[in-house]
Q: What sequence folds into this?
């Protein structure tokens, strides 16, 4: 849009360094405590190691997640598209205060749990994916990111929503999550209903429910051998749905 200037100016055109624009487009980051890394012993004896994804792993992650966009059942296509955009938003610094936890078994990427902080009080759960069957990996990853929000970051509320019937059945109904009135409150994933968990509800009920599903608790005393075995992440060869 152009308007004639109401006063004579000495310079008709101004040049702006894009580095001066970037602070306006990139949200100033909060001081988020890092996820310390944890492991869970699966029932089959394998060790699932959960750590933060590294920014240089984002291209590999996007390349694999892209494959889910071609799966046209159980809403995998829309989940794939949204998770791809969430990882890309993190990679391009266009997502406010995101976190991406990856579950690894001897370097093989088998689980993802991500979200972002709206503010110091509210943690917005985005997606949880099990990239391999068996071991209740999805439940473990969901528990890990909820634990991260409430126990490490000190959030007061957890906001979630669901695209699939299975997700709603396991977490929305299974955790008896209440919802805020719609459309006054809308989740950023498509403007759907906001299902929420408070810190008090987490402490008294939800934490125990997920622990029962997982069948084990998080172990933060991770030996160097496990950390080393999962230092380099590789994606699965195929999509498992």
A:
């Amino acid at each position: 849009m152009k308007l004639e200037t109401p006063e004579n100016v000495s310079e008709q055109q101004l040049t702006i360094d894009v580095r001066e624009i970037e602070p306006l487009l990139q949200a100033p980051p909060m001081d988020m405590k890092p996820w310390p890394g944890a492991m869970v012993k699966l029932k089959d004896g394998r060790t699932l190691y959960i750590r933060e994804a590294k920014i240089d792993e984002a291209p590999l992650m996007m390349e694999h997640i892209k494959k889910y966009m071609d799966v046209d059942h159980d809403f995998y296509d829309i989940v794939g598209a949204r998770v791809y955009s969430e990882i890309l938003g993190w990679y391009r610094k266009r997502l406010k205060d995101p976190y991406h936890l990856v579950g690894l078994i001897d370097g093989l990427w088998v689980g993802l749990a991500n979200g972002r902080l709206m503010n110091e009080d509210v943690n917005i759960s985005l997606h949880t994916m099990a990239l391999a069957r068996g071991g209740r990996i999805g439940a473990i990853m969901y528990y890990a990111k909820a634990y991260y929000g409430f126990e490490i970051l000190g959030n007061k509320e957890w906001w979630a929503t669901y695209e699939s019937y299975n997700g709603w059945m396991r977490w929305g109904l299974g955790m008896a999550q209440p919802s805020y009135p719609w459309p006054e409150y809308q989740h950023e994933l498509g403007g759907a209903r906001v299902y929420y968990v408070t810190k008090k509800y987490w402490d008294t009920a939800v934490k125990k429910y997920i622990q029962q599903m997982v069948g084990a608790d998080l172990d933060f005393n991770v030996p160097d051998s496990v950390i080393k075995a999962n230092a380099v992440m590789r994606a699965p060869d195929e999509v498992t749905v």
The chain has a mean pLDDT of 94. The longest strand covers residues 108-117. Residues 37-158+219-229 form a domain with the Aminopeptidase fold (CATH 3.40.630.30).
